[in-house]
């Protein structure tokens, strides 16, 4: 009787979690946010819902197929190990964000691009720009480097769209802005910015603020260190709640793959 009750609670739990994950992924995919941070929750949610519905049939099938049963149990073990590592990563991100801090005098502010849509910054990119703009206004001698090339289907580069945004919303003068409009990744954002900064007699040994999303500061910092940024000040902008945990999930895989490929 107790085993049956436990099984029922497991099915209810999996059905609830599965429904949340499935709907979360499905809604974001419908808005064309298609990446591992949305597809994986969608697939996991679908699996959990199906498993909850056909729990007894699935468990009975594997019970009578010993070899498959061993693989099935091993798969669950791997899943729980992965889930624990994901939980640790999320915990690290949520507890290592520098929300507010006094910014010492800096030579430049590099804002990492992250996508535009219909000629406007994405919600995530707007948060980064809103994080960088007050610092640029407080330190008018610091150059503000906007980074990012042309996204698929767009006419203007991310850098141009970002520049227009801070001019319109924060009244930052064009003379303070530098455009890096060729890059397509964080690595290129930072690499291409070096040449532009050198033209302004700024080298990467000097204090430079790098503004990105809160979840991205860990990987961006590692990339910056490898490229020789010796006094980089990482500033994290908050991520919109509706995409926050999907973005964190995508970053988990991006950080892991970068570590495995020795990119840091």
Describe the structure.
The structure is a single chain. The longest helix has 30 residues, at 66-95. The protein has helices at 2-30, 36-53, 55-63, 66-95, 123-138, 158-170, 186-198, 217-227, 241-260, and strands at residues 108-111, 116-117, 120-121, 143-147, 177-180, 208-213, 232-237. 60% of the residues lie in helices and 11% in strands. It has a five-stranded parallel beta sheet. The chain has a two-stranded antiparallel sheet with strand order 2-3. It has two domains: 2-95, no CATH class; 108-260, HUPs (Rossmann fold, 3-Layer(aba) Sandwich), CATH 3.40.50.620. A hairpin with a 2-residue loop joins strand 2 and strand 3 (120-121). The chain is an alpha/beta fold. It has nine helices and seven strands; from the N terminus they run ααααβββαβαβαβαβα. The chain is elongated and about 70 Å long. InterPro entries: Cell_Envelope_Assoc (IPR051599), DUF218 (IPR003848), Rossmann-like_a/b/a_fold (IPR014729). Residues 108-253 form the DUF218 domain. Keywords: Membrane, Transmembrane, Transmembrane helix. This is DUF218 domain-containing protein. The chain crosses the membrane at residues 12-31, 37-58, 70-93.
